[in-house]
Amino acid sequence: MIDWDALTTEAAQLLSGYLQIQSLNPPGDERAAAAFLAEHLRWRGFAPKIYESAPHRANLVARLPGDGTKKPILLYNHMDVVEADPTRWSHGPFSGDIRDGYVYGRGAIDMKGMGILQLLALDLLRQTHPQRSRDIIFFAAADEEKGGKFGAQWMIEHHWPELEAEYVWDEGGFGLRDFFGPQPVFTVSIAEKKDLWLKMIAHGDPGHSGMPHENNAINILLRALDRLRSLEAAYELHPIPRRMFRDLSERMPFPKSFLLKNLDNPRFFRLALPALTANHTIAAMLKDTMSITVLQAGGKENIIPERAEATLDLRLLPDRVPAEVVEKLKRLVDDRRIEFQILQAPEPAASSDPDSEFFRVLSEVLFELVPDGLTTPMLSPGTTDSAFFRQKGAQSYGLFPIIITPGELARFHGIDERISLDNLRLGLQITYRVLETMTRM
Description:
This protein is α+β, with helices and mostly antiparallel strands. The protein folds into 2 domains: 4-182 and 376-438, Zn peptidases (Aminopeptidase), CATH 3.40.630; 194-344, Alpha-Beta Plaits, CATH 3.30.70. The protein contains 14 helices and 17 strands. The model has no long low-confidence stretch (mean pLDDT 95).
């Protein structure tokens, strides 16, 4: 008999200690986080190995062996976290406080919490099922928050045999309550939008600010950005959101159910758009998006700068060709004084199979443990390291197996990020049950 109460308490304590490690990226230093995980894996009888991709950058791999009848499953998590302003948190972002049924800290949801659940589920599988049909690989990655250059991308390029798996279980979706109604909907990411990062550089002439002129680099950049902001991408229905809406239609009352089931009809799609796009997450699944994320110009109050820069984060639908998008932006700006630099361009990657053995087992386990829930594939508006695994042919699925509300999701990369003890328990049960089913002889 598994003592889920004791395991939940253990998960909360482990996560509390893990959240106290400030593995911020930038600047990027996962060594302490990797050492923490390695210590707890060794204590449980595993033999973790740490790979240094660059100074201060660490990746960790541990393996629970099976008999090789089936190909491995890889449990992915990342150790780096984004910045947090402690003055705006009610609990310190690196306190790991356990209060009122929650564990607080940067990374509780993204994604140290999932890493702890995977570690404990892996150990529970080791204890309860000595005979297994496939290896389970635990991979704690560096650098996910900055694109994976020193993490998953580097490991795949240099140590692919250590990671090669049939299925990858990553982040990307959640069990969402009060998004599509009161019943939870588990959105499993099977593909994601392409992440294209660009830098726009405006070249002008320097001068004294008391004698303004037309070739001020800041003015050139602002005019170019205005042209880009005027570009409104058209909404369209990609096949993955189409299937998601069709699944959701089963839970909706008429006429919503009818509209969602028939979005292939352009007229019905137009009728449903106002309601669909009222949710920013869903709206982002239906078109290309662009956000201006960084502005840099000038260095002194009385000098007109000769250079001004803006960083653009474009998230493109899966069938887009990034080079064609860049050319379109250049034509729209139509100014030789503006230079475009590609900071990060996505590689082509296929979608994962929503009818695979893993997806089927995951859906069945979710239904058993959350009978009023619905599981559906999703196109993720954000990007994860799954993109690198899909390029290698692995079937990658993104789901943090917990149930959260819009208010909880807002804490993701936000203020007072936290995870409930109830979710730690549920996540442990789901992760273990899926692995137990997938490794049966």
